[in-house]
Amino acid sequence: MKTKLVVFFLLITSNTAFAKECTVLLHGMARTENSMNRLAEELKNEGYEVLNYGYPSTDLKIEKIAQIHLPKAIEQCGDADIEKINFVTHSLGGIVLRKYLSENKLENLGRVVMLGPPNKGSEVVDKLKKLPGFKLINGPAGLQLGTSEDSVPNTLGPVTYPVGVIAGSSTFNPILSQMLPDPDDGKVSVARTKVEGMTDHVVMPVTHTFMMKNKEVIEQVITFLKSGKFKK
Length: 232
Known about the structure:
This protein is an alpha/beta fold. It has helices at residues 2-19, 37-45, 62-76, 92-103, 123-128, 134-142, 174-177, 215-227; strands at 21-26, 49-53, 84-90, 109-115, 163-168, 200-204.
């Protein structure tokens, strides 16, 4: 009888521990929260409370997205029982989060996983931003993701919180890849996904567009959220 009570107690406390962590998902540029659905479901299956947050990535500049939408996402995780808020971001989502956290302190911030983040900008933006239609497709935020010293990613400084970065090294877009140093994921080079102060970094044979749906990538996300490091 005692053994059964102990097991029951452990199950209850384990579920409670998971319930006290909210994980916010932030999608990439010109995408919606639907692009993160598979990741959201897998995290829920692991016992995490998940907020798959959609925002108008092509309507506003990065600073406005951060100013308007990050507080809304955090508020939706603001249950009194929530002790930590984690973030998993794709592409632009990582820069939006960095912008917000560079100006705001989140006392209950947990761990952050960034998928394919242009943490030092992308040469693709440098070469295509003046083409007709680029701003129409990618919005004002897209124009801010170049590699110049005054681009938004390059003005944010080091991260000071637990960050794991997953970079892709595979591409199905040879035209864009020709604009990038190898290796790259078709949108961002591996070298430019890195950010000073990050906790861990791993390179996987996945593309920028679909990396958030990849089974092995999702396993690495879960591993970092649980342990603070990737499987090597």
